[in-house]
Amino acid sequence: MRNIGEAIAIKLGAVLDIVLACRLCPDKVRKAILCSKGWKMADKSAVQWGVIRRARNVTIGRNTAVACHSFFDGDGIITLGEDIRTGPFFRILSTTHPIESTVPRRKFGADLNLHTRVEDGCWIGIGVTVLPGVTIARGCVVGAGAVVTTSTEPNGLYVGVPAKRIRDLPV
Q1: With left for phi above 0 and alpha for psi between -120 and 50, is residue 16 left, alpha or beta?
Q2: To the nearest whole number, what is the mean pLDDT of the chain?
């Protein structure tokens, strides 16, 4: 009997993933599905179609919009603050594997779950990747295709791989 229940749960999860990916799914339905999976989403927050959710501990603040085909992954905490806009294909990760001298690099060690954050008032360009444990500080703009490997300072424009601050932004 347990195997039947597990099979039903797996199929239901797959159906929910298909609904999340569908362009025809209303935003309110998508939001309800994500919240039923443990996400916390404030008023006037939205996640567009095509999101891949392999993270459970996600908080999205008020007035934040996540564009289509974005990817959330990891067992750590992911927090998006208020008034944030992301471009399509945004990727944010919260789990990594530590590199230690006692663990051969060809094998995975234990998971390292971290808190990855995007603070209030940021713009995140198309195809940006935010690595585990990074904080993008308030008021930053991250240019298309950047890979953010270390935490940023507030109110800066960051571009490149790895992302580097190229100028200050007005407060």
Answers
A1: alpha
A2: 89
Whole-angstrom distance, CA of residue 7 vs CA of residue 2 = 9
Look at the block and give the residue holding tokens 């179609």.
49
**Confidence class of residue 106 from pLDDT cuts 50, 70 and 90?**
low
CB-hemisphere CA count at 13 Å for 150? 5
Domain ranges of the chain: 2-168
Q: What is the pLDDT of residues 77-102, one digit of tens each?
A: 999 999 999 999 999 999 998 777 76
Nearest in space to 61 (alpha carbons), one of 44, 36, 48: 44
pTM given for the model: 0.87
pLDDT at 127: 98
CATH classification of 2-168 is 1.10.1040.10, yes or no?
no
